[in-house]
Structures are given as C-alpha cells and as structure tokens.
Design a protein that fits this description.
63% helix; mainly alpha
Length: 158
C-alpha cells in the first residue's frame, strides 16, 4: 500500500539518505538551512535546481539541501505561499488583493513583491531554526534503525 504513495516513499528515502551522511553535523545542518531557505523562496518548480546550484556554489551538502527543499511540496505549497504573501503584504503595507480589479500587468507589484518580501521574512528564521534543529539531530539520527519498505512476495501484486 505504501508504494502507491510516492510522496511518503520519497520523503522516507531522503530521510534515510540524510541519516546516512558521513559529514560533520555542522556541514549537514548548513546544507539543510540552505535547502530550507530556497524551499521558502517563490521559485516553485525549479527549487531543486537552485538548491543544487547554490550547494555547489557555497560548497554545502547537496543531499541535505535537497531534503530541505522538500519543505515546499504540493501539499504544503499553498499554505507556505499564502502565508508568505500575507506577511509580505503586511510588511509592505499593501491592501488585500482585489480580484475584481486584477490585471496581469500589475501581477509583479501586487503579488510578486509581497511574496518576495514574505519569503525573505519567513525563509531566514526557518533556515536558522532548521540549522539549529538539524545540528542537534544528526548525531542521534545515525543510530536510528529505519526499516525497509515491505517487499512484494511476487510480481503479480500490482
């Protein structure tokens, strides 16, 4: 049954990869913080590429950055981006979005600017909190025994 739920399987595989990293906890936590920050940026769809690019550029842990980017997935993206928009709108002092007078020419100023400001306002604290949690959690994760997925008995159980 769990094999049909690709999201949970992928999350578990990334968690196993993170637990098996042999780097120092600080290096893993820096990669996780980078991934979390990029995960909170309004770049849905190319966050993995950005995480890989910046992990290479800043010489951070690539697997930890990939795991951190998974904070924004199809289940959490509406909540995160909605919260980022509202925080950015409040910080910029803009009125709520009026859909009656909405035009695509003003999309960048009405939606883009609050989303960018909100992503910075939320991404930096989340990255700092993620770093502090990860640096403490990595040493204990190495002792976890994560069970494998149940194997199929024969190939006809699709």
């Amino acid at each position: 049954m769990w094999r049909r739920w690709g999201f949970f399987r992928q999350f578990k595989l990334n968690l196993i990869r993170l637990a098996r990293l042999q780097n120092e906890p600080d290096a893993v936590a820096r990669g996780m913080a980078l991934g979390l920050f990029i995960g909170f940026s309004p770049t849905f769809g190319c966050q993995m590429l950005l995480a890989l690019f910046f992990a290479f550029l800043f010489r951070q842990n690539k697997i930890a950055a990939f795991v951190g980017v998974w904070v924004t997935n199809p289940l959490t993206a509406p909540l995160i981006y909605g919260l980022e928009y509202q925080v950015g709108r409040l910080l910029l002092g803009l009125p709520p979005l009026d859909t009656a007078n909405f035009s695509y020419r003003s999309l960048g100023t009405i939606v883009g600017a609050p989303l960018l400001v909100g992503s910075l306002a939320l991404g930096i604290p989340v990255a700092i909190i993620g770093y502090s949690i990860t640096v403490r959690m990595v040493p204990s994760m190495r002792y976890w025994k994560i069970p494998r997925w149940p194997r199929r008995k024969n190939s006809q159980e699709l």
